[in-house]
Amino acid sequence: MPHLLVRGVKAEQMAVISQPLTEELAAICQCGTDNFTIECLQTTGVFDGKIVDSYPFVEVAWFERGQETRDQFAQAVTKHVLSLGVPEVEVAFFAYQKESYYINGKHF
Question: At a CB cut-off of 8 Å and minimum separation 6, what does 47 contact?
Fold first, then answer.
């Protein structure tokens, strides 16, 4: 169920790495590849009165799996995004709380 929201990287680029990335992430999280959602957000950066490229940034929303898994996950995402020729990328995690998560209106 990890949900990756990607800014500053084109959807066409992410499509190239999506299969090997989700396979590696599934191995790290010990789940199926169908548990992952990757969405590329179309954003417009502005700075100093000009329109600029958005900074490469990946937000990961998930149920917490611990520091070791988080480190491995971040390293895998970083490796795959950098392989696209992106010079730098940041990854941030947001943990869902089970008591605050619902599927079709029913508590998880």
Answer: none
Could you tell me what percentage of the chain is helix, strand and coil, using 3-state DSSP and rounding each to the nearest 5? 40, 30, 30
CA dihedral 27, 28, 34, 35 (to 10 degrees): 150
Amino acid identity at 33: T
The amino acid sitting at 39 is: E
Pairing of strands 3-7, 37-40: parallel
The pTM assigned to this predicted structure is 0.93
| Helix extents (H) in 4-66 | 11-29
Read off φ and ψ for residue 79, nearest 5 degrees. Answer: -60, -45
Per DSSP, the three-state class of 104 is: coil
Number of H helices, E strands in the chain: 2, 8
1: pLDDT confidence band, cut at 50, 70 and 90?
confident
Mean pLDDT for the stretch of residues 2-27? 97
So what's the pLDDT on residue 41?
96
